[in-house]
Design a protein that fits this description.
Length: 116
């Protein structure tokens, strides 16, 4: 049997921008993506702590150490700059392997989205 489990999570990161006129996705600081073991194009779930919105999109790399978290395209309507969000991705794996799997959990500084 296979199940879906949390693979990666960036917990409580601040939205820095919303660009309605972009084709879609979420731009994430490359440093945060690396720490969370996310790759460009990976499907992610977003939870907006401020308004309860939940939605899915895909990740694209932002400039390294920029702190950038920008929602693009239609997703830009679900956030405002300054909102706190949680970004998650999932993996499908064997049930027994899932019992011992440890996800990549990242807890950035909410003020500037840094890892310090």
């Amino acid at each position: 049997m296979q199940i879906q489990v949390v693979k990666s999570k960036i917990h409580r990161v601040k939205v820095t921008g919303a660009d309605l006129n972009y084709i879609g996705s979420i731009t994430i600081d490359e440093t945060l993506m690396e720490a969370a073991n996310l790759i460009e194009g990976e499907k992610v779930s977003i939870v907006n702590v401020n308004n309860g919105e939940r939605f899915e999109t895909y990740a694209i790399k932002g400039a390294k150490n920029s702190g950038e978290i920008t929602l693009n395209g239609p997703a830009a309507r679900k956030v405002h700059a300054g909102d706190i969000i949680i970004i998650m991705s999932y993996a499908i794996m064997d049930f027994e392997k899932a019992k011992s799997f440890k996800p990549w959990l990242v807890f950035p500084n909410e003020k500037d989205n840094s890892l310090t």
